[in-house]
UniProtKB/TrEMBL annotation:
It is found in: Cell membrane. The chain crosses the membrane at residues 41-66, 124-146, 152-178, 229-250, 314-330. Signal peptide: none annotated. InterPro entries: L-PG_synthase/AglD. It holds the Pfam family LPG_synthase_TM. Keywords: Antibiotic resistance, Cell membrane, Lipid metabolism, Membrane, Transferase, Transmembrane, Transmembrane helix. It catalyses: L-lysyl-tRNA(Lys) + a 1,2-diacyl-sn-glycero-3-phospho-(1'-sn-glycerol) = a 1,2-diacyl-sn-glycero-3-phospho-1'-(3'-O-L-lysyl)-sn-glycerol + tRNA(Lys). The keyword Transferase applies. This is Phosphatidylglycerol lysyltransferase. Its EC number is 2.3.2.3. The gene is mprF. It is a multi-pass membrane protein. Belongs to the LPG synthase family. It comes from Limosilactobacillus coleohominis 101-4-CHN.
Length: 341
């Protein structure tokens, strides 16, 4: 990691500590201690298993995609990728650092750059598609609740959905209407010329056209691997389910019963969408606020709500970042050859 990355990581950890301290300001610490003492650690271990499965399932998708490209790509390196992704997603705005970091990690393993980009692109397309599918279901179940609790912020949920859906629609348009999409994109970006110099405009235009061309070439390969994409889609659904169910088990661990499993998972799905819109790395601040507001009706105990939020944040954010730091120190295995697929 660069000095800049270490600085951001340190800043995010300090900011997280500050938010935790602020959350505890009106909380009886003795009650927090009592809640911890009576906590059902068996359910918390189930939660820990869920976040581990979330990361492992993503490693499984990597192995599926690499099977006919680099058969000797090891499980160690496959699991290493999502851990590194979690770290760099956690320290970059809008989680933009995960993809480049995974690419570097694959190059370190000796994977060809073109193949690595292809695998990461296909993984991204499937993941985004499954997020949209899960979100539509959750929106139907829990939007009335989130609208009641978050009011104006509920619009952010819709906005987030529109962004994720637009990404999928744009990718599908490139795959199936390449020429039309490319012409449309060059028309849409023309107003950029009003705000930047001509040379900069041409650079942006050339870069976007290059990306569209690259994705189209990769999409041709994707079309021939529908069976593999279906397998990855199933694994990705399981991966997201393992993530979305985490708050439910946290509440059980804190002896909060009578919670609707479907509602808890739906609300967590919506929180996931809200977090993706906050420019601060990890959605810090917005994540904690959203969780506290949406899950407040599940318990009358303020201390349990705050503790649930702290445990949730540790598992879903900090656990992945620290695991990613460890993964960076693990030396990757070198692949020997490619099948050339």
């Amino acid at each position: 990691m660069s000095r800049k990355n270490w600085l951001v990581l340190t800043t995010m950890l300090l900011l997280g500590i500050g938010i935790f301290a602020y959350s505890l300001r009106d909380t009886n610490l003795q009650q927090i201690s009592a809640d911890l003492a009576t906590m059902n650690w068996g359910w918390f271990l189930v939660d820990l298993l869920c976040i581990c499965l979330y990361l492992i399932f993503e490693g499984v998708t990597v192995k599926i995609f690499m099977a006919n490209r680099y058969p000797n790509f090891t499980w160690k390196d496959a699991i290493r990728l999502p851990l590194i992704e979690q770290l760099f997603n956690g320290i970059t705005p809008f989680s933009t650092g995960g993809q480049p970091a995974q690419l570097v990690a694959m190059l370190q393993s000796g994977v060809d750059g073109g193949i690595a980009s292809s695998v990461l692109l296909m993984k991204f397309v499937v993941f985004q598609s499954m997020i949209v599918v899960n979100f539509v279901i959750s929106l139907l179940i829990g939007f009335h609740y989130i609208e009641e609790k978050l009011h104006v912020l509920a619009l952010l949920v819709i906005f987030g959905f529109v962004i994720h859906l637009s990404v999928i629609v744009a990718l599908l348009m490139v795959m199936y209407w390449y020429n039309f999409t490319k012409r449309l994109m060059n028309i849409v970006i023309k107003p950029v010329r009003w705000f930047v110099k001509e040379q900069r405009y041409q650079e942006i235009k050339d870069s976007l056209n290059e990306k569209v061309d690259s994705f189209y070439q990769e999409s041709i390969k994707m079309k021939s691997e529908y069976g593999k994409l279906v397998k990855v889609a199933v694994v990705t659904i399981l991966q997201l389910m393992a993530y979305y169910i985490i708050p439910y088990f946290i509440l059980l661990a804190l002896n909060v019963h009578g919670v609707s499993l479907i509602m808890a998972m739906s609300l967590h799905t919506l929180i996931f969408m809200i977090i993706s819109l906050f420019p601060i790395p990890g959605g810090t601040g917005g994540a904690e606020y959203s969780f506290a507001v949406l899950f407040t009706s599940f318990t009358t105990s303020h201390s349990k709500l705050v503790l649930a939020m702290l445990l949730w944040r540790i598992l879903t954010y900090y656990f992945g970042m620290f695991a990613g730091m460890f993964a960076l120190m693990v030396k990757p295995d070198k692949v020997k050859n490619s099948m050339g697929v």
